[in-house]
Amino acid sequence: MPEDDPRILELRAWRKKALSGGGDARIETQHKKGKLAARERLEFLLDNHTFNELEPFITSQNAGSDLPTEKFLGDGVVTGYGQVDGRTVYVYAQDFTVIGGTLGEMHSRKICRVMDLAMRNGVPIIGLIDSGGARIQEGVQSLGGYAEIFRRNALYSGVIPQISVMLGPCAGGAAYSPALTDIIIMTEKQSFMFLTGPDVIKAVTGEVVDSDSLGGTEVHATISGLAHLVASDEKQTLKLTRKVLGYLPSNNVENPPYIPPEDNPLRMEPQLNSIVPLDPSIPYNMHSVISYVVDHDSFIELLPGWACNAITGLARIGGHSVGIVAQEPSFMAGVIDIDASDKMARFVRMCDSFNIPIVTFVDSPGFLPGVDQEHRGTIRHGAKLLYAFSEATVPKITVITRKAYGGAYVVMSSKYLGTDVTYAWPSAEIAVMGAEGAVNILYKKVINSSADPTAEREKLIQEYRLKFNNPYYSAQAGYIDDVIEPCETRPKIITSLAALRDKFAPAPPRKHGNIPL
Q1: Beta bridge partners of 316
Q2: Is 173 one of the annotated active-site residues of the chain?
Q3: What is the 3-state secondary structure (H, E, C) of 49-98?
Q4: pLDDT tens digit sequence for 244-253
Q5: What are phi and psi of 315, to 5 degrees?
Q6: How big, in percent rounded to 5, are the helix, strand and coil portions of the chain?
Q7: Which of 200, 214, 382, 507 holds its CA 20 to 30 A away from the CA of 407?
Q8: Cα dist from 403 to 17, 19, 107, 170, 311, whole Å
Q9: Torsion region of 93: left, alpha or beta (phi above 0 gives left; psi -120 to 50 gives alpha)
Q10: Domains of the chain, with CATH numbers?
Q11: Virtual CA dihedral for 265, 270, 271, 277, nearest 10 degrees?
């Protein structure tokens, strides 16, 4: 066709109009807020020149409504597919310049379509969220649209990775979609999530609160435990999204991406031999242990500000993706409470869904005691962690660095929950409880009848610790596979991962288990 063919000119005009979103003035307003437009975000997220847009000409049908609605091509969401580090992903980016990015019937249809295509092709789906919620003028159609998205979030969970990137508001029922996905990444001072906004809360309860204090990044990263990662601005958020995606496979039947390591797989760290203090009451930093063991600068901690007594994150060891689960003895002595149980259980299930081996570092004195914890269901929440580790069929390697007492020993990927290899450091203490508590129960009468109860108690504690609270007693009984020097941990784990690469441990036939939610 010649260049001046009216059909070509008409197509170019339609494309230009679709690319303009809500118009230059609204895009400029977006920029003044420090926010990118929807297509600019996609350009930054995806590899250069790989984005292919789908359904750019769709508009709101607004069927059955007498309310006036301005119509825009694309209906407030940009959808399509592209590549991240050469791997195909499907994406949708809500466009706040079009009716505040609100979701209507056609808007939701576009999102559902790319979710379906991602599922059919076995590739991740990434949602860039920036929306004022349901489009009120479309009524029940918008609510039905949300339900269709939620259903797909649930059905595709554990089959393809789903990542929610929060770049603006996500209010009302819309917040349930990110909550159903695998990883949520928020942007400081820009993104927030809540079910009922400040105005509704003030009207119903009388509480006065702003959007950031109600559902901003600080809230979800440290109090609710909803946001896995937080970045300082949009570009950092999108950059972090690309990085996280590099640890995940495209679907549940693939293995995670392998990156040839620049770090020596036989590297030993002498510092590990002295990192655990001789006095078991003195804390140390488990983050340092992890950094010495994994490939240099490969650890991405998830939920670092919530339930800080537990550590979860993605890393590479010998170039292979692994999930790291651990306690932090420098915070609450690494005790397991309700939030820590939930944090670790959810992460273990995500790793198991996507064939990511799990490496667990154990140093916990047990579950947090107290009336509040018991009444709030610490048994039920702890059972989630027990269930998750028991159900997981991926390679599982456990390293007991120090305390593994009582229920904490059992639930933290112990050998008899199906863990493949269990190592212990010479500092490991595996017992029903600590020496002090055991002596108080077992030798109460002996201590009370002694001429010097304090001295007698200390003597008995030392004797108990030497006899029972050491790794060799447990090794003799078969509860651990080997006692290793701490500096050997990295090469031992790499060797174990290689041996377990073809692990096959199918679960019994069933529709699904009944995790104690």
Answers
A1: 321
A2: yes
A3: CCCEEECCCCCCCCCCCCCCCCCCCCCCEEEEEEEECCEEEEEEEECCCC
A4: 999 999 999 9
A5: -150, 180
A6: 40, 20, 40
A7: 507
A8: 64, 59, 53, 42, 16
A9: beta
A10: 6-245 (3.90.226.10), 270-433+470-499 (3.90.226.10), 435-468 (no CATH)
A11: 120
Which of 174, 408, 435, 438 is labelled catalytic?
408
Tell me: the pLDDT tens digits for 174-220?
A: 899 999 999 999 999 999 999 988 988 999 999 999 999 999 999 99
Query: CB within 8 A of 142, min separation 6: which ones?
Result: 102, 103, 104, 105, 108, 134, 135, 136
- Rounded (5°) CA angle 299-186-212: 135
Other residues' Cβ atoms within 10 Å of the Cβ of residue 50? 16
**Using 50, 70 and 90 to split pLDDT, how confident is the model at 490?**
very high
Tokens for 492? 């031992």
Facing residues of 185 across strands?
A: 165, 229
Classify residue 389 by its DSSP letter.
Answer: H
Contacts of 491 (CB under 8 A, 6+ apart): 265, 266, 267, 268
Region 222-238: mean pLDDT is: 97
| Given the residues 82, 100, 133, 172, the one annotated as active site | 172
Nearest-Å Rg of the Cα atoms of the chain is: 27
- The one catalytic residue in 139, 305, 406, 407 is 407
- What value does the mean pLDDT of the chain take? 92
N-to-C CA span, the chain: 62
Considering only CA atoms, which of 257, 287, 263 is closest in space to residue 275? 287
Q: What is the pLDDT of residue 137?
A: 79
What is the value of pTM for the model shown? 0.93
- Mean pLDDT, residues 494-508 taken together: 91
Residue of 173, 197, 319, 406 with catalytic role: 173
* Residue 459 phi, psi dihedral angles, 5° rounding: -65, -45
